[in-house]
Amino acid sequence: MFGKEFAHIHPPSDGSLHMTLPPEIVPQVIENGWAELHPLAGQYGLPGNIVMVYGPRDDEELQVVCDLLTASHTAATSSEA
């Protein structure tokens, strides 16, 4: 996650995504089992709110991923970013 990148998707065989989420939602996202903290989060100058979101397996999970991606984009493009 460098520069203005707020998220990227991995190959279709996996479908997971790395994204930067608003810090206040990261604990709940992890607790809900939708993601895990990126192993480099908070290290080497990277923000502590980078997660790996698991690839969706059905339409319901796809909606969760879309909602998380929207939250990531909104945070990245807000006037506070």
Query: How many structural domains in the coordinates?
Result: 1
Integer average pLDDT: 92
Rg calc: 12 Å
**How does the major sheet shape up?**
4 strands, antiparallel
Oligomerization state of this entry?
A: single chain
Give an account of the 3D structure.
There is one protein chain. With 81 residues, the protein is of the alpha+beta class. The chain has one domain (17-77). The protein has 2 helices and 4 strands. The protein has helices spanning 26-31, 59-77, and strands at 7-9, 17-20, 35-37, 50-53. A 4-stranded antiparallel β-sheet has the order 1-2-4-3. The relative contact order is 0.22. The model has no long low-confidence stretch (mean pLDDT 92).
Write a brief caption for the model:
By secondary structure, this protein is an alpha+beta fold. It has helices at residues 26-31, 59-77, and strands at residues 7-9, 17-20, 35-37, 50-53. The protein has a 4-stranded antiparallel sheet with strand order 1-2-4-3.
Q: Key terms for this structure?
A:
81 residues, 4 strands
What is the secondary structure topology, with strand pairs?
Layout: E1 7-9, E2 17-20, H1 26-31, E3 35-37, E4 50-53, H2 59-77
Antiparallel strand pairs: 1-2, 2-4, 3-4
